[in-house]
Amino acid sequence: MTGQGTARPAPRRDPGRRRALLEAADRVIQREGPEASMAAIAAEAGISKPILYRHFGDKSGLYQALAERHTRRLIAGIRTEFSGTGSPLARVRSTIDTYLTTVAANLHLYRFLIHRASAEDAATHSAMSTMIREVSRELAEVLFAEGAMVDQDRAYVWGHALVGMVQTAGDWWLDHPEVPREVVVDGLADLVLGGLSAASEGRVLELFQDR
Fold it and tell me: DNA-binding region located at which positions (predicted)?
């Protein structure tokens, strides 16, 4: 004994096995919702909970692996749409629609990661926040490079604001499924493009004036 305690076993590095365990977690969360237990995930994979954790280091490691798995897919889809061809309106609409469609199709997983894992685990919250900031930064750079914003600092402000706005509006829409997705997409696209146009021309205050 060294008096320093027992070292935690290093996570196993079997990509195929880790992928199978994450797929088991996906199935349980999609079936049981964001309150799915770690014991249920382990049972789905045919192993004990300690062995499940051993593959990821601990529960935090499992949370972070799930977050990376799903946010990476979502971000890839968003990047593809926003960086594609077509008019600004078409690209903005397509990007927002991709986000809303993806989170709606994976509702339980989205709520597990955003409202449970991020709340329970600081490392997962930090990892997801970093990914969101990366998307915001890329959006800001596109806005500046394409001339939608003539001031780089303002482009970064708007990039982060736009991502936050779409995420918050998406959370609201998930709680109000009676509202057609197209209505949300069109509303957000009009707000984004109208705001960018006004900001680039110094007309922001006009958006709040009676006409």
Answer: 37-56
pLDDT tens, position by position, 17-46: 999 999 999 999 999 999 999 999 999 999
Domains and CATH numbers, the chain: 10-57 (1.10.10), 66-202 (1.10.357)
CA distance 209 to 211: 6
Residue 142 CA to residue 158 CA, distance in Å, equals 11
